[in-house]
Design brief:
This protein has 462 residues and is an alpha/beta fold. The protein has 2 domains: 28-87 and 287-456, Endonuclease Chain A (Endonuclease, Chain A); 96-217 and 247-262, 2-Layer Sandwich (Endonuclease, Chain A). 36% of the residues lie in helices and 22% in strands. The protein contains 15 helices and 21 strands. The strands form 3 sheets. It has a 17-stranded mixed sheet that branches. It has a two-stranded parallel sheet with strand order 9-16. Helix 3 (68-80) runs antiparallel to helix 8 (297-308) and helix 10 crosses helix 15 (446-456). The longest helix has 17 residues, at 3-19. The two termini are 21 Å apart. Residues 1-20 and 219-229 have low confidence and may be disordered.
């Protein structure tokens, strides 16, 4: 990172407290507790189904699910206002190298358009490979649009992006750090944290993985390595992504196009961005694309799922700095007999965030929540699976920055079979984690307590 960019970024952070006002999350007491109807709304490629059609389809697809699944889907719809989308195939991508290979394979097969939205786009071996491939596809006549966050890419040389632009790739720096370069409404505190790749309008990827060599190495789960001492610079990153085929891809595409237009970046090059999408599988999805000033749909969705949990709440969270309502919901679930487990970082690329999150450990542990710290990788995943049937994967961390300030996108998959895959992934995380007990935690050094206290003071901004 050159000195000029470093100075700009430090100045921007200093300016943060002036340009941003404190906002609050929705009051949990206002979340729905009783379903207003028996069947959730279901949308397909051909339009929204009637209640009778939805009921018939859900009965067939959720034949082996618990009776509470429809109720949860209805409550989530009431809280978010977003319907389920039927007819999708969802592939869980649990390993960084496998995810990057799948994305590169899809880009290589592109015929008409590639839309990439990412928080980080590094100039490293993976970033250079992606850039060269995008430029090659543009030379082949494929329309390529790339939107990257200006803060997330603050360390990436501008020449890297200029090379792609010169090759005909349509480039957009989201919310530039320098307000003089902004065309739309400028706010340094509102970042585009989404990770979206849509190819030919028919194949979609989303989750937590950026375009970076951090994910190029195995997360070391496969090696069976376990160690109490982990060097974050020598291990892989643990993250989760998904590939989607089917009608829900159009929602990812719309989120990309809408964000592009909001930046007043000019017209996208003509392409068939929204082809007719046929059913590709039997999965029901709810795509939650949030932005500053929206109605905190991702937060509401998470709160409803935790409140309705009957058996288990399994959270994997890279940056866990919850508000008190989430803490209370997790403890309430544990006290009613729900198996509440959190996999949190043992090593992190953001020490301040990790210490702020640890300030909640004692309250959570005393309330019956079980906490595990991942040891063999830098944790970057943001997933939750409830009762083995409700799952969420996306870009949003469990913190105020994600819920209030950032542009985020999470996908909710309501499906027992997919839930089993999520549970298997969670259990693999557990095998590579160390449990934190209340007795151990209360015996930690005072120096750690001071770090946690000091970090907690900054929790709204980090």
């Amino acid at each position: 990172m050159n000195k000029h960019r470093t100075t700009m970024w430090i100045a921007a952070l200093a300016f943060l407290g002036v340009v941003a006002s404190c906002k609050t999350l929705p009051n949990a007491e206002h979340l729905p507790e009783t379903p207003a109807k028996a069947v959730p709304k279901v949308a397909t490629a051909k339009g929204t189904l009637s209640q009778a059609q939805s009921s018939k389809l859900l009965t067939r697809r959720w034949a082996n699910a618990t009776p509470d699944l429809k109720s949860l889907a209805v409550l989530e719809e009431q809280a978010t206002g977003v319907p389920l989308i039927a007819g999708n195939n969802v592939q869980l991508l649990f390993d960084g190298p496998a995810t990057l290979r799948a994305m590169i394979e899809a880009v290589r097969a592109a015929k008409t358009s590639i839309n990439l939205e990412t928080y980080i786009f590094d100039q490293d071996p993976i970033g250079l490979q992606f850039a060269e491939l995008l430029m090659e596809k543009r030379r082949q006549g494929v329309v390529v649009n790339v939107m990257y966050d200006s803060v997330g890419t603050v360390g990436t040389p501008q020449a890297f992006f200029d090379n792609m632009r010169a090759a005909g790739v349509n480039m957009l720096a989201f919310n530039p750090i320098n307000p003089a370069k902004a065309k739309g409404n400028w706010s340094i505190n509102n970042r585009d944290h989404r990770k979206i790749l849509v190819v030919d309008g028919s194949v979609g990827f989303t989750g937590g993985i950026n375009i970076s060599a951090d994910y190029a190495n195995s997360s070391l789960f496969r090696s069976g390595r376990k160690s109490d001492k982990v060097d974050k610079d020598k291990v892989g990153w643990r993250d989760t992504h998904i590939r989607i085929d089917g009608p829900a891809v159009a929602t990812l595409q719309y989120a990309f196009v809408n964000n592009w237009v909001r930046q007043e970046a000019g017209e996208l090059l003509p392409a068939e961005y929204f082809p007719r999408l046929s059913p590709a599988g039997d999965k029901f999805l709810r795509v939650l694309a949030t932005e500053p000033g929206s109605h905190s749909e991702i937060y509401k969705s998470l709160m409803v799922a935790i409140n309705e949990a009957k058996k288990s709440v399994h959270v994997t969270s890279a940056y866990f700095v919850p508000d008190q309502q989430i803490v209370d919901a997790l403890i309430a679930a544990a006290k009613r007999g729900v198996d509440v487990k959190l996999v949190l970082p043992g090593v992190s690329d953001h020490g301040l965030v990790m210490q702020a999150g640890r300030a909640f450990y004692e309250q959570l542990l005393a309330g019956g929540v079980k906490i595990f710290q991942l040891q063999v990788a830098v944790l970057h995943a943001k997933t939750v699976v409830v009762d083995g049937a409700w799952s969420t994967i996306g870009s949003a961390n469990i913190d105020r920055r994600s819920f209030i300030h950032n542009y985020e996108l999470n996908v909710v998959v309501i499906d027992p079979a997919f839930g089993r895959d999520m549970e298997a992934a969670f259990n693999e995380d557990l095998r590579s984690s160390k449990e934190v007990t209340l007795e151990q935690w209360r015996d930690r050094p005072w120096s750690d307590r001071i770090k946690e206290w000091a970090s907690r003071l900054t929790e709204y901004w980090i």
